[in-house]
Amino acid sequence: MRRATTIVRVITGLLLVPTGVSKLAGTPQRDQWGDGGWQLITALRETDYLWQAMGVMELLIAAALISGRFVPLAVAALAPLAVNLIGFHTIVDRTLNAAVPPAILVVAGTAYLLWTYRRTYAPLLQARTPAPAGTTTAAPGSQAR
To answer: Whole-prediction pTM value?
Structure first.
C-alpha cells in the first residue's frame, strides 16, 4: 500500500509540472481548445494574475508531492484544482484533446491520495471540536474573564 501511494503521489506531481511551467513560461495554442475553453483561458491570462497564480500553485503542489513533504497540505490544495479540471473539460471546453487524459489521471490521483490521507483530514471535518489544551472558553452569551 505504501508503494502504491508513493507511485500515485509522484506521478500526480509529475503530471502537474508541465501545466504549471506552461502557465508561467508559455502561451497556450488556440487550436488545442474549443471556443468556451479558449475564452476562459484568454480571460484568465488577461488578468495578469490568476493564470500565473495557478501555475505557481501547480508547481508548489508538484514539488510537495514529488518530494514527499507536506503531502496532506498539497493534496488539500490540489483537490479544488482537480474539481475544476473536470469542470473545465466537461462543461466549458467539451473537446477531447491531449489535455484530457492527464487531467483524468490528476483527478484519479487526487481522489486516491485524499482517500489514503483521510484520517489526516478527519479533524477538519468535525462539526464541533474541543478547544485546544490550555485555552479557556466562555459559555455562549457570557463574557470571558
So the answer is: 0.82
